[in-house]
């Protein structure tokens, strides 16, 4: 299926290449930037943006003066980037599916209103899904969405489709976010849905995502079994010799 035309050109190319990569083997060479410019009829900068995203996700290696090559896909997501679950699992060569557990419109709690910067009386859209890869439960995900998303989210196929793609198609381009990652024991509900013992440690990620205009659109909690999911972290080492002055 060709990438949606409402996406920026570099994202369309990136998605087309992701699909192509799923059928390629590690070590295979990709077309040159010049060939991709010709194929997609875009500028070299657009191709470079698409290829850099693939490189940042660890899918390809770009060797200056030699070319770009497929590498073994990473098993984890980098903590400083959010990739749609379906794309993340496909990157790993796995088949993603979702089980829709709940979808409703209700008044926001105080915490939800604060996270999305809403008035306490406003409503939110709640989507709760069990995310699976090759039939194995990977995450229990609860998304709280701003009221303006209601029409598109309530009508969307969220068992086979991507929530973020649905929002983007409606003109809501998610761009930035903040996340907190903790460890918490599995509740009885977690244990039943994720197939883990009650009390087993889970990796819990809570994030708030805003659109290109800085408006908070989504507050999501994802609960992962620790033996099925991990987040890789990039960091810099601060100079330990620096002195703090009072």
Compose a concise summary of this entry.
With 246 residues, the protein is of the alpha+beta class. It is 28% helix and 32% strand.
Question: How is this fold's topology laid out?
Answer:
Layout (H helix, E strand, L loop, with lengths): L8 H13 L11 H8 L3 H13 L3 E4 L3 E4 L6 E2 L6 H7 L4 E12 L2 H7 L6 E11 L2 E10 L4 H6 L7 H7 L4 E12 L2 H7 L6 E11 L4 E10 L5 E2 L14
Parallel strand pairs: 3-10
Antiparallel strand pairs: 1-2, 4-5, 5-6, 6-9, 7-8, 8-9
Helix pairs in contact: 1-3, 2-3
Structure, described:
The N and C termini lie far apart (60 Å). 28% of the residues lie in helices and 32% in strands. The chain has helices at 9-21, 33-40, 44-56, 85-91, 110-116, 150-155, 163-169, 188-194; strands at 60-63, 67-70, 77-78, 96-107, 123-133, 136-145, 174-185, 201-211, 216-225, 231-232. The strands form three sheets. Strands 4-5-6-9-8-7 form a six-stranded antiparallel beta sheet. Helix 1 crosses helix 3. It has 246 residues and is α+β, with helices and mostly antiparallel strands. It folds into two domains: 9-70, Winged helix-like DNA-binding domain superfamily/Winged helix DNA-binding domain (Arc Repressor Mutant, subunit A); 77-232, Chorismate lyase (3-Layer(aba) Sandwich), CATH 3.40.1410.10. It has eight helices and ten strands. The longest helix has 13 residues, at 9-21. The protein is globular, with a radius of gyration of 20 Å.
What's the number of structural domains? 2
Give the biggest beta sheet. 6 strands, antiparallel
So what's the overall shape?
Answer: globular
Q: Sketch the topology as an H/E string, one letter per element.
A: HHHEEEHEHEEHHEHEEE
What is the radius of gyration computed over CA atoms, rounded to a whole number of angstroms? Answer: 20 Å
